[in-house]
Structure formats: C-alpha cells, structure tokens
Amino acid sequence: MTKRFLTTGLALFFCCATLAAQPPQGQTSGGRRSAPRNRKVLLIWADTRNGIAQHDSVSHAMSVIERLGYESGAYDTYIRTDSAIISKHPVMTTGQPASGGPNLNNVDAIFFLGHREIALDDQQKADLLSFVKEDGKGFVAAHTATTAFMSWPEFGELLGGRFDNHPYGVVEGSVVNEAPDFPATKHFPLVFNFTDEFYQAKDFSREKARVLLRLDTSKLPANPQMHRTDGDFPLVWAKMYGNGRVFYSALGHDAKTWDNPDVKTMCFEAIKWALKMTDGDVTPRPLPAVK
After folding, report:
1. Range of 197's domain?
2. Bridge-partner residues for 201, per DSSP?
3. What CATH number did the domain enclosing 213 receive?
4. How far apart are CA 122 and CA 34, in angstroms?
5. Residue 106 falls inside a structural domain
6. Are 68 and 268 spatial neighbours (Cβ–Cβ below 8 Å)?
7. What are phi and psi of 12, to 5 degrees?
8. Is 21 part of any domain?
9. 192 part of a folded domain
10. How far apart are CA 102 and CA 266, in angstroms?
11. Cα separation values, 173 from 38, 118, 268, 291, Å
C-alpha cells in the first residue's frame, strides 16, 4: 500500500512539474507565438527615465492594471518601462531587429503612465500616432501623462490636453459626473467627494472631447494658480483620435488611489472601451449650466 501511494505521489509530482514548465497559451518555450492570442493585448508603457517629479505610485498602478486583465481574463498584458518597443519596426540595443516581445504591430491598446520628455525618434512618433489614428487602436492614459512630450504638439492633440500645474496640491474636492451613461463613469454618483492631486489642463477643448468627470472649483478657495476663468476643470475625458479611442484620467497621484474600487472599475471599463469591447458616446458637450 505504501509503495502504491509513493508511486502515485511521484506520478502526480512529475505531472504538475511538467504542466508548470509549459509555456503560456499561444507561446512556445522559446517565447515565440505558436498560435494567435484569443484575448486582446494591452501594453502598459511607463518610461520615467527623465527623472523629474517621478511618482512612487506608477509601479503599483501598473501592477493594478495588469491584475485587472489577468483576473478578469479580458486582456493579456505586457509591462514595459522603456520606449524601444514604441515602434512598428522595433530594434534591439545593437540596432538589429528585435525578436519577439511587444511592439505596435501586436498590441491592441496602450495604457500610458510616462511623463516629461521621452526619447522617441521621428519614426517612432509617426508610428505611435498612426497606431491610434489610422490603425484604430486604443490609448488610455492617467495622471502624469499630460506632463509628457510637452515639446511634441501632435501628442497633445492625441491626448486632448496638457499639464498646467496642480493649483490645490492634494485636497478633497467635489467631483461632478457629467457622463452617468458612459461605461467608465456610470458607477460614480452624480456628485461625490474625492481626495487627490488634481491636475489642471490647458490646451483642452470641449469641442474635441467629452468631459466625463470634472472638479467643482466653486467649492474650493480662490487660488492664483487657477488659470481657467470659466470654472471648467476637466479631470477625466474620452475622445476619438482618427479611428482610435482615447481616454484620460487625471486621478492617481497616490498609490492608494489605485486601490480605490471606483478608480479600478473606471480604468478597467476605460480599457475595455478603448479595446472596442464596449461602446460609449464621446460626442463633445458644452459645460453644463450651473444650477
């Protein structure tokens, strides 16, 4: 009897070891694909090598976004903190063509958390723009994204707005939900309090994007760094860029923000929308009249 149990135990051990050694679905042991993926593919891109005003929350944010896809089965994820793969013709550090890994030919959307100036050459910039505008792929960005590529006008057009400081620092503010019909914001109350470092946006137009959430600045003290005089302080918006879907959220300064269930739901639904797994109306709307 003991010998039989020992033999069975050894068999189970080697069976489990064999399964553990097998490559992920759709890959061979060499890392190359053996079959097309069944799920959408998200590239989380967060190049922070510039070193200015780095956010400790970025690492945790990337892990949260990856886990949302992993646990739901909605999408597969690559995480990258370099920008060599932002190309339709990626190369290794030797200059030779890269073999395997993510690039703009084999991912369906980008979740972007980079900031400040990021080293992309002219061809990479053209590839990124065409990835969204012409190929119809998704681009979801958060918090620091509006500080990125300030010297690249076309990126501002893609994203929809630019960083213009954070007048109040980290503060509790009243947030207005302008889009209770949109997948990424329908779970929020029409008005709710939220604590964060709220980024002010410049070069933003309500004629080119639909504002989903905005900060009600009428309930905050006057501040000389508040540059908008119309009382409009967009925090989250969605828009089209050519054939592609773009979503931006200014939320996410602190790591614990990414553990907020409402924020996680917003990001997950935004990614699904950008991946064209769901639909949402992004028709631009004017600032609602204050009641």
Report:
1. 38-274
2. 163
3. 3.40.50.880
4. 33
5. yes
6. yes
7. -65, -40
8. no
9. yes
10. 25
11. 42, 31, 23, 18
- Partners of 80 in beta bridges: 45
Distance from C-alpha of 127 to C-alpha of 88, rounded to nearest angstrom: 6
Q: Model pTM greater than 0.85?
A: no
Domain count, the chain: 1
The answer to whether 248 and 160 have CB atoms below 8 angstroms apart is yes
C-alpha 156/C-alpha 31 separation (Å) is 36
User: Which residue in the block uniquely carries the two structure tokens 């501002």?
Assistant: 156
92-142 pLDDT per residue, tens: 777 778 777 789 999 999 999 877 667 788 999 999 999 999 999 999 998
- In a domain, residue 26? The reply is no
Beta-bridge partners for 173: 194
DSSP alpha helix (H) spans, the chain: 2-21, 57-72, 122-133, 153-159, 261-274
Q: How far apart are the first and last CA of the chain?
A: 81
Q: Which runs of consecutive H residues, i.e. helices, occur in 134-222? A: 153-159
The token pair at 75 is: 């999408």
Helices 261-274, 57-72: crossing angle, 10 deg rounding: 70
**If you ran DSSP here, which 8-state letter would residue 83 be given?**
S
What is the C-alpha to C-alpha distance for residues 160 and 205, in angstroms, rounded to an integer? Answer: 7
Question: What pLDDT, in 10s, does the model give residues 152-211?
Answer: 889 888 998 886 766 676 777 889 999 999 999 999 999 999 888 787 787 888 999 999
Separation of alpha carbons 272 and 75, rounded Å: 9
Do residues 55 and 144 make contact, with C-beta atoms less than 8 angstroms apart?
Answer: yes
